[in-house]
Amino acid sequence: MDKLDQIKFIADQLIALGNLDIVDSSFSADYVAHAGEKTHNLHKFIKQFTKQVRTALPDIKISRIEILSQTENVVTWQRIFSGTHKANLKGIPASNKKVKWHEIFISRFDKDKIIEEWIVSDLAFQLMIKLK
Fold this sequence. Notes:
Helix content is 31%, strand content 42%. By secondary structure, the protein is α+β, with helices and mostly antiparallel strands. The protein has one domain: Nuclear Transport Factor 2, Chain: A (Roll). Strands 2-1-6-5-4-3 form a six-stranded mixed beta sheet. A hairpin with a 3-residue loop joins strand 3 and strand 4. The longest helix is centred in the middle third of the chain and has 15 residues, at 42-56. The protein is globular and about 45 Å long. It starts with a helix and ends with a helix.
C-alpha cells in the first residue's frame, strides 16, 4: 500500500469507523505528535483524541484528503472534516451546529508506520465561532 492509500485507510478506520485497533499496527510505539506548543507521545494520545472528537461530533465525515508533497519517508497532507457539534470538546460546549474544519499534517514514516507528526488544525476556532 502506498503512503496516500495508507493515510486514507488510517483516517477512515480511526475517524469514520472509530477503529482504535488500527493504532498499534499503523503508528510506531515511539510515536510523537507536535501540535502548536504541545508535544503528545505514544498511542494513548491518538486513541484519546479519536474518542473525544467522535463523541463531540458523532456524525463526523472526512470530506477530502489531499497530498501536498511527498518524499520517501515524509508526507505533507491535508484533510477536511465536517460534523455537528453535539457534546463538549476540550471545554468548548456543544453548539448543535454544523462545523467544517481543515487540518494539515506532516507525517514522518519509519518503514510502514507513522513515527512522528506535526499537526495544524482550526477545529477549536471553528467550534468557538459557532457559539455565537
